[in-house]
Amino acid sequence: MDEGSIEDIALFADLPPPALAEIQQRCRWAIFQEGDVVFDRDSDTLDVYFVVAGSVRILNTANADRDVALADIPVGNYFGELAAIDGLRRSARVVALEPSRLASLEGRYFFELMRTYPTIAVKVLERLTRIIRDLDYRVTQIASQSESQRIWAQLLRLAEPSEQPDSWIIRDVPNHKEIAAWSGTSREQVAQAIGDLARDGVIRRRSMDLIIQDLPRLQLMVSKATA
Predict the structure, then answer these.
(1) DSSP assignment, residue 226?
(2) Segment (H or E) for 218
(3) Which domains are seen in the chain, by residue range?
(4) Do residues 62 and 68 make contact, with C-beta atoms less than 8 angstroms apart?
(5) Distance of CA 197 to the CA centre of its chain
(6) Which ranges of the chain have pLDDT less than 50?
(7) What pTM, to 2 d.p., does this model score?
(8) Which end of the chain is flanked by fewer CB atoms within 10 Å, N or C?
């Protein structure tokens, strides 16, 4: 695994070397394997985490057997700042998507960094703004689309043009559990929604890929108003 460094974290890109050295010294370091829980919802830890190698996923739980994916945090980014800012319990669970090396800072120290370095505070505000906009979109999507439409919309987000004219492809299509997490549905509903598309000739399987044969029709099915 790449060891990484706190200098690779975009949040600290504009800080002078002495400040980076102090932050590096204050960090705690830990390695997480794929599937390990970094922290759980309602835990009272206030640390802010920085991904120096690997990646993690932020999840919430809709019910006992359904996870909802909120965001993937790749290398060079951070998470956990909400608890550091408001001092409340964690609002989500974070798990490692792959072997990952994380650095963490105490919440109070991170808050002081925001006070000391306005560039950090501005970047945190910009990130929070993006989170709010994304959540606004997802709430609207849940309110206005059926479960099948949310699944089909997720397929559209994953698709890219293929080598064949008028054809789109999802390479190495995610498993049903992952698609369900991003669309806020169940694995069973994902299987049914994808099966409906295959039976209608909108998509077809090709080894580990999914070929979208009728992109305009799929777009129309996603945008069609629900009753």
Answers:
(1) P
(2) helix 215-223
(3) 6-143 (2.60.120.10), 145-223 (1.10.10.10)
(4) yes
(5) 26
(6) none
(7) 0.81
(8) C
